[in-house]
Design a protein that fits this description.
By secondary structure, the protein is α+β, with helices and mostly antiparallel strands. The chain is 36% helix and 36% strand. It has two helices and six strands, in the order βαβββββα.
């Protein structure tokens, strides 16, 4: 198991973030279900997209979104927690690679993997922020 957490402040609100996230999730779920019926985003919602079983484990609009992505190669849990602050929102992004076993790797390989995960988490948070900004226009 390998957990990475990245925290960053952005100049938009938690509501703006969830507006974008909801739009992305709704589209993904409709594509997975091959219909355009309304989607209710809630804890417990499941869908399969491109062979990846996805379960929304926590959904509290404006506060927290957590989902588990699983197939025969990986098992990953991601979590976004938002908190409105005076100049926008602080987002904490966590990624838990449940399928990673650090005891099966050397210290150096674990360190390298950690660096790659941290870089990937920062990139993912920036990608989401860019999406939020575009969605606000």
């Amino acid at each position: 198991m390998k957990m990475i957490t990245v925290k960053k402040q952005f100049q938009f609100s938690a509501n703006n973030f969830f507006d974008y996230l909801d739009k992305q999730l709704t589209l993904a779920i409709q594509q997975a279900r091959k219909n355009d019926l309304p989607v209710k985003l809630a804890s417990g919602t499941t869908y399969n997209q491109d062979g990846i079983d996805t379960k929304i484990t926590k959904y509290n609009r404006g506060k927290e979104y957590e989902a588990n992505f699983k197939n025969d190669k990986f098992d990953i849990m991601i979590n976004y927690q938002t908190e409105d602050v005076p100049n926008g929102v602080e987002i904490t992004f966590s990624e838990d690679i449940k399928s990673y076993d650090p005891t099966a790797h050397s210290k150096f390989n674990n360190w390298l993997y950690n660096v790659q995960l941290k870089h990937g988490a920062k990139k993912e948070l920036s990608r989401m922020a860019n999406g939020v900004h575009q969605n606000m226009q």
